[in-house]
């Protein structure tokens, strides 16, 4: 009988290498460890939903093409979390001032861009910056940190203007952009003047057709780009004010 048992034991071969049993035990322990980590972790749902709301329900963000490329484009140039926080603060400030329908806030690969409809920024044929736009710009100037340049563009619709001060839409759009730059350079902590650019495009860069009042209203606008630093940018900024 003992001989039979001995023969049976000698004939048995291991079904797998001995190291595999140890390796399997280690994998099981690691899996258990990570499951415990996930089980003990908590997700701040309120903050997550609040941040997500600025990318799903905000006018001028998801409606604009290139939102996600914009986020990816800044990844190598500035801390994404810092830029996203600035964008969130600026967007919230615009909403709190009741100007969500008059000011679009966009996060692009270049930086944070504000677009003002001209009715909230200027009276017809005027270059005097109105108080609603002043309030937004004053707030944004305090929040926008780590900015390389501030680029302001003026745009009009295609209806001609002919006054002594502004013979065409070129002059009017450029003067409005210069008025915004002048206001921003007067704010506390402003960049040096050579970091500001004001340009006027007249009616030549529309974002809607000029055949309806709504389309013309969309074309009459001021855009302000708070550009993030670009390591590949040329050091020379050129003239601070120009007309294209």
What does this structure look like?
With 244 residues, the protein is α/β, with parallel strands linked by helices. Helix content is 45%, strand content 14%. The protein contains nine helices and six strands; from the N terminus they run H-H-H-H-H-E-E-H-H-E-H-E-H-E-E. The chain has a six-stranded mixed β-sheet with strand order 1-2-5-3-4-6. Strand 1 (103-107) and strand 2 (111-117) form a beta hairpin. Helix 5 runs antiparallel to helix 7 (131-143). Mean pLDDT is 78; it is low at 54-78 and 233-244.
- Rg over CA atoms: 30 Å
Please write the string of helix (H) and strand (E) elements: HHHHHEEHHEHEHEE
Q: Kindly state the mean pLDDT as a whole number?
A: 78
The chain-level structural class is alpha/beta
Q: How does the overall form come out from the CA principal axes? A: elongated
Helix content: 40-55%
Give the key terms:
6-stranded mixed sheet; 244 residues; alpha/beta; 45% helix; elongated; single chain; disordered C terminus; 6 strands
How is the secondary structure organized here?
Blueprint: H1 2-11, H2 18-40, H3 45-56, H4 67-73, H5 80-96, E1 103-107, E2 111-117, H6 118-121, H7 131-143, E3 149-155, H8 169-185, E4 196-200, H9 213-219, E5 221-227, E6 241-243
Parallel strand pairs: 3-4, 4-6
Antiparallel strand pairs: 1-2, 2-5, 3-5
Helix pairs in contact: 5-7
């Amino acid at each position: 009988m003992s001989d039979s048992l001995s023969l049976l034991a000698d004939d048995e071969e291991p079904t797998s290498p001995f190291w595999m049993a140890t390796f399997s035990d280690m994998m099981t322990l690691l899996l258990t460890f990570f499951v415990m980590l996930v089980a003990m972790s908590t997700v701040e749902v309120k903050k997550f939903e609040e941040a997500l709301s600025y990318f799903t329900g905000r006018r001028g963000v998801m409606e604009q093409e290139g939102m996600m490329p914009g986020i990816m484009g800044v990844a190598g140039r500035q801390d994404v979390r810092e830029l996203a926080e600035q964008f969130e603060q600026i967007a919230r400030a615009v909403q709190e001032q009741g100007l969500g329908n008059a000011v679009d806030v966009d996060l692009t690969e270049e930086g944070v861009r504000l677009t003002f409809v001209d009715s909230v920024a200027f009276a017809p044929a005027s270059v005097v910056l109105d108080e609603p736009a002043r309030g937004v710009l004053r707030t944004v100037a305090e929040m926008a940190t780590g900015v390389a340049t501030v680029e302001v563009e003026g745009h009009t619709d295609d209806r001609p203007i002919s006054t002594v001060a502004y013979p065409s839409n070129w002059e009017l759009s450029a003067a409005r952009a210069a008025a915004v730059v002048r206001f921003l350079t007067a704010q506390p902590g402003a960049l040096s003047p050579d970091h500001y650019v004001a340009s006027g495009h007249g009616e030549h860069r529309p974002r809607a057709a000029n055949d309806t009042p709504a389309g013309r209203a969309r074309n009459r606008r001021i855009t302000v780009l708070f550009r993030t630093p670009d390591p590949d940018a040329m050091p020379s900024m050129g003239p601070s004010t120009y007309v294209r």
